Amino acid sequence: MFFLIPIGSEEGVRRLPYFTIGLIALNAIIFIITSSILSGQEQELFRIQQELQDIEIKYYLDILEQNPNALQQITLDEQHQLFLENDNIRWEANDYATWHRLYDEYKAKFSSVVFNKLGFTPKHFGFFKLFTHMFVHANFFHLLFNMLFLWLVGCNIEDTWSWKVFLGLYLVSGVSACLLHTAVYSASNTPLVGASGAIAGIMGAFMIRHYKTKIRFAYFFWLIFVPPIFGSFAIYAGIALPIWFLMQIVSASWSVEAGTAYYAHIGGFIFGAVIGMGMKFLGIEKKYVAPMVEDSFEKLKMSSRMKEVYRKMDINDTAGAMPLLLAVLDEEPHNFDAPLILARIYYKKGHHDDAILMYNKVLDIALRSVESDAVLSVYEELREKGILQKITEKNLYNLAAVLENSAKYKDAVETFGVYVKLFPHGQVRAKALYRVYLLFKNKLNNQAMAQRTYDFLKKEYPDFPTLE
User: Fold this and answer.
1) How far is Cα 119 from Cα 194, in angstroms, rounded to an integer?
2) Nearest to 271 by CA among 365, 195, 199
3) CA 444 – CA 462 distance, rounded (Å)
4) How large is the C-alpha radius of gyration of the chain?
5) CA–CA separation, 259 vs 261, rounded Å?
6) At residue 66, does pLDDT exceed 80?
7) Does residue 369 share a domain with residue 257?
8) Strand-strand pairing, 229-236 and 2-9
9) For residue 74, what pLDDT is reported?
10) Which of 237, 311, 235, 308 is nearest to 273 (CA)?
């Protein structure tokens, strides 16, 4: 006896994966409900089957006279169909009417069975069943192992890409898995149920995005008369998940049964891996997803007052937001968002002096925290509004330095130039000129402007030390 079961990954998450937990809970609840419904449906179908067979057994000889092998190795459904289509049966009075009534009742109840109602049957395409089939499971172990794998990979994908991207990937992976299964088994009447295709998509994305994460497996090995061996080991996702994928391909090549969802696993996994590669190599995660995720984390860390501010701003209630923002300024002197929102409100209302005061406060906070992205964001806003010249001497010089360090050399030259012009007696004016000279010379490759800046520097500050 040998068991090998994944029990978790060794990469933590930054917050509780509420959506993954909710998805697991939803599947469990649906399983409990559908199982109780299915139990009653199966009992009713069994009763009708027995009544049908009680009648059919009297007419087996009529069938066998036509074809001696007709009733060998066929399902009960095929047997009923055989009796329906055979015109040579010598029915006794009322038997045919009773049998036909039972058969119609059987078909009606069979079509309403949970798996047929919510599962996806390749031969009978149903759009909504492309989604509903993911939330129905055949039995407890089907649910258990699917949810185990969902927990294994879902937590980190939700944490990395947000619940919104996670949900989209989950659903579309499930649909992709279902379509590939349908392409292979297009004539199948067996309903496809279970979340394995959707989860395979999350596994494919996990393989690309978290390939260095170790997955821990528990193992148990036991032979008769030999003490059991058990324990656990860890292996990189970039190794473990491709092995799992290859196992699905091998199993699919051996399988001839439409009810086995190996191709669904393959379809979901490929789709998830493609999305993972797109996120990584096209820069989608860095440009769009990561900022959204970080913003959601920032909101989690907000005070209740700031959350109320955002709620009011969402409905354009600036009058209600302003007193809350002023209170935040007093309570949280290092809060970056409050003065920035106030600055935008003041500017929009035409209170430019108040807006400039707030923008200076925002810049001061951003510069002290060494958050270059925040500094650059404020810079773009100031430049767009045409109020860069209103920034304080200290903030203007430090802003230019951040632009230089961020390789925005033209913007740095322009901002240092604004400083030189606005503050003829500035404490670091000579240093600003020298940095402009070095930027023209070494970064912008404009030797003529470098020489003009150098000449101006020596004229204004003949004693300023320079390296030539």
Assistant:
1) 8
2) 199
3) 25
4) 35
5) 6
6) no
7) no
8) unpaired
9) 61
10) 237
Our separate counts of H helices and E strands in the chain read: 21, 3
- Single-letter residue type at 80: H
Q: Are 166 and 158 in contact (CB under 8 A)?
A: yes
Token pair recorded at residue 125? 């395409």
**Two tokens at 202?**
């999350």
Task: Output the CA angle 336-342-344, nearest 5 degrees.
Answer: 100
- 380 with 408, same domain? no
Do 227 and 327 reside in the same domain of the chain? no
Domain membership of residue 297 (yes or no) is no
- Type of residue found at 405: N
Q: How far apart are CA 292 and CA 282, in angstroms?
A: 17
Could you report how far apart the first and last alpha carbons of the chain are, in Å?
Answer: 80
| Domain contains 89 | no
Give the pTM: 0.63
What amino acid is encoded at 259 in this protein?
Answer: G
Range of the domain at 401: 394-468
What's the number of domains the chain is made of? Answer: 3
CB of 264 within 8 A of CB of 245?
no
What is the distance between the alpha carbons of residues 25 and 53, in angstroms, rounded to a whole number? 41
Q: What is the distance, to the nearest Å, from the Cα of residue 36 to the centroid of all Cα atoms in its chain?
A: 32
In a domain, 229, yes or no: yes
Does residue 130 lie within any of the structural domains? yes
Which sign, positive or negative, has the C-alpha torsion 421, 438, 379, 324? negative
Query: What is the mean pLDDT of the segment spanning 295-322?
Result: 80
Residues 86 and 100 sit within 8 Å (Cβ to Cβ): no
Residue 68 scores a pLDDT above 70: no
Task: State which of 72-76, 129-133, 210-214, 296-300 shows the largest mean pLDDT.
Answer: 129-133
Q: Evaluate whether 236 touches 166 at the Cβ level (below 8 Å).
A: no
> Element (H or E) spanning 232, and its range?
strand 229-236
Contact (CB, 8 A) for 122 and 182:
yes
Residue for token pair 């920034």: 391
CA distances in angstroms from 315 to 324, 340, 356, listed in the order given: 15, 18, 25
Work out the average pLDDT over 33-48.
91
Report the alpha-carbon distance of residue 95 to residue 53 in Å, rounded. Answer: 12
